[in-house]
Specification:
about 120 residues, mainly alpha, Arc Repressor Mutant, subunit A, two-stranded antiparallel ribbon, 6 helices, about 65% helix
Length: about 120
């Protein structure tokens, strides 16, 4: 299953929330992302059927190994691209917002080149 940008954003959010709390629920995801419960439920269902998340009996949402791999990749891009833009003099809020868009479209080759050139590894 190929993920759209929104799916990547959900996985990244689940990763961030799981680092903050031991039990991630759909309501937590909705509050973090500003989405309605039906939207979150639909997205989680798609991610579940794609093998990216599991949902426990109590409603806890966890990343599978595949989901964690994608989430960590996207989150690393977000952090590094934010840092890159800030290092160029971009305002922190603008840098984070722009990085959020860039993280989904930048190629692996370009991302690796930025990391290497600016010694972000």
């Amino acid at each position: 299953m190929h993920l759209q940008e929104s799916g990547e954003m959900y996985l990244e959010t689940i990763l961030i929330l799981s680092e903050q709390k031991s039990f991630v629920r759909a309501i937590d995801i909705g509050e973090h992302m500003g989405f309605s419960k039906p939207s979150v439920s639909r997205a989680v269902g798609l991610l579940r059927s794609g093998g990216f998340v599991t949902v426990g009996d109590g409603g806890g949402i966890s990343l599978t190994d595949t989901g964690r791999e994608v989430a960590e990749k996207i989150y690393e891009r977000h952090l590094l691209l934010t840092r890159f833009l800030k290092d160029l003099g971009v305002n922190e809020d603008v840098a984070a917002e722009d990085a959020c868009r860039m993280e989904h479209v930048i190629s692996d080759e370009s991302f690796t080149a930025i990391k290497k050139h600016f010694h972000y590894e």
